[in-house]
Backbone:
């Protein structure tokens, strides 16, 4: 049996002595799309950054693809894709140059064709040679998503991926996420847009004050009710 | 090595396009040299004695700006997260950034050294090979340490102040070694600079090894 892409047990992250994540237990299996909900400051971004290897866990255990990140994070990094609040693309390079740069770092085979394919998917083919500095917020978000997909990751961590996207871009992303899930990719994404993500999700996890307050499946109305019960006013 | 070269090419491409580090090098470097010249107003006889100290002070203060810029580049749009989530040894990121800094500092020296010769009446032609060796060794030590500390400083709030504060005390051996070695080379060639060159080599090895080993720990939160 293959190890799940994410298995966290009692995962804790302290910030200046305060637990931002407090003993979080979370497993994400291949082919699952898990949506993380929670009020501002609940620890959603911190959890994604710990899973992406950008923050070290302060306690607990974290296995990615069965590998303990404290000992072998380098071995699994090539299998995960991450999109944070910012694009991680260099503003003075063009969209195509940014993707080519990351394709080289990830040793993507047939990189040029893959870059062109993803630029076309992101609707950025016409502006591929323009500096990213000139892109709108939505265009930068689409470029960031293309960057994260370059190396066909088996685990995709997305922090509010729909933010900044216009309706067409959001639909295109939703279709891509559904296709990735169907292909066996594990996805974990944060959002405040329940209506958009509930139909895609196999499971929703509500994080509150660094702890998992609720998890389950259902339609948007059921999840919204569970969210209100778990979080209250969200303070 | 492949990742380090990729990062080096990316940094040089951005610098070629923006000229941000180079323009600050030229403006600050020339300004410092002019200030030193006017402040000391040295006679042609005493000017060469001042040249080594002026050269290294100008080089270090100007170089700090450029090296800091190299990491601010990674902070903008959280590009560092892009590098750190790639399957790349953080030591390769260090090597790529260090190589880019060495090239930019080499360009800085190509501007500053002839100006020193001109303003401080130093005949550079005969001593140039020895001087190039001293500059290479001094630059390596400086860049190795500054690249490491720039990665630390870029993550704190008072980063513009923090880099010089962290860096300058530890740079003293390289600065002293560089000044002494330059004095020796200008006075009588490489033979006169042997001891100082030994100091530079020792600190190059220490700082480059420390940077290589410690960078993976300082670059992540």
Residues:
């Amino acid at each position: 049996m293959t190890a799940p892409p994410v298995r966290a047990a009692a995962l804790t992250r302290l910030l200046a002595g305060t637990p931002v994540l407090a003993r979080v237990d979370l497993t994400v299996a291949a082919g699952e799309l898990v949506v993380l909900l929670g009020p501002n400051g609940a620890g959603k971004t911190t959890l994604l950054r710990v899973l992406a290897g950008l923050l070290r866990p302060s306690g607990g255990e974290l296995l990615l693809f069965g590998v303990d990140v404290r000992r072998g994070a380098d071995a699994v990094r090539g299998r995960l894709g991450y999109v944070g609040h910012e694009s991680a693309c260099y503003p003075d390079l063009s969209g195509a140059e940014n993707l080519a740069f990351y394709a080289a770092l990830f040793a993507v085979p047939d990189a040029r064709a893959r870059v062109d394919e993803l630029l076309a998917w992101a609707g950025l083919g016409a502006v591929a040679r323009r500096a990213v500095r000139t892109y709108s917020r939505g265009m930068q978000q689409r470029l960031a998503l293309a960057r994260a997909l370059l190396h066909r990751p088996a685990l995709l961590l997305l922090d509010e991926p729909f933010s900044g996207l216009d309706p067409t871009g959001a639909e295109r992303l939703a279709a891509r996420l559904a296709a990735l899930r169907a292909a066996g990719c594990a996805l974990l994404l944060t959002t405040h847009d329940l209506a958009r993500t509930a139909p895609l999700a196999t499971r929703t996890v509500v994080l509150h004050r660094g702890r998992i307050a609720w998890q389950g499946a259902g339609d948007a109305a059921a999840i919204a009710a569970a969210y209100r019960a778990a979080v209250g006013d969200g303070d | 090595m492949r990742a380090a070269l990729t990062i080096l090419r990316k940094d040089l491409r951005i610098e070629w396009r923006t000229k941000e580090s180079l323009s600050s090098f030229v403006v600050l470097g020339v300004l410092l040299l002019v200030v030193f010249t006017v402040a000391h107003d040295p006679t042609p006889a005493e000017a060469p004695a001042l040249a080594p100290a002026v050269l290294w002070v100008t080089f270090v203060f100007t170089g700090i700006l450029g090296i800091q810029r190299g990491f601010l580049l990674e902070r903008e749009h959280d590009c560092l997260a892009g590098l750190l989530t790639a399957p790349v040894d953080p030591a390769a990121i260090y090597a790529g950034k260090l190589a880019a800094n060495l090239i930019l500092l080499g360009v800085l020296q190509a501007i500053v050294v002839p100006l020193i010769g001109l303003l401080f009446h130093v005949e550079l032609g005969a001593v140039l090979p020895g001087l190039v060796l001293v500059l290479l060794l001094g630059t390596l030590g400086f860049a190795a340490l500054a690249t490491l500390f720039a990665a630390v400083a870029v993550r704190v709030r008072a980063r513009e102040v923090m880099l010089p504060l962290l860096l300058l005390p530890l740079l003293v051996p390289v600065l002293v070694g560089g000044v002494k070695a330059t004095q020796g080379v200008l006075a009588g060639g490489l033979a006169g600079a042997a001891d100082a060159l030994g100091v530079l080599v020792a600190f190059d090895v220490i700082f480059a090894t420390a940077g290589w080993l410690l960078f993976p720990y300082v670059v992540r939160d």
Q: What stands out?
A: The helical segments of chain B are 2-18, 20-40, 47-75, 79-84, 90-119, 128-153, 159-188, 194-218. The mean pLDDT of chain B is 88. The interface with chain A takes residues 2-3, 6-7, 10, 13-14, 17-18, 73, 76-79, 81-89, 220-221 of chain B (CB under 8 Å). Residues 90-119 of chain B form the longest helix (30 residues).
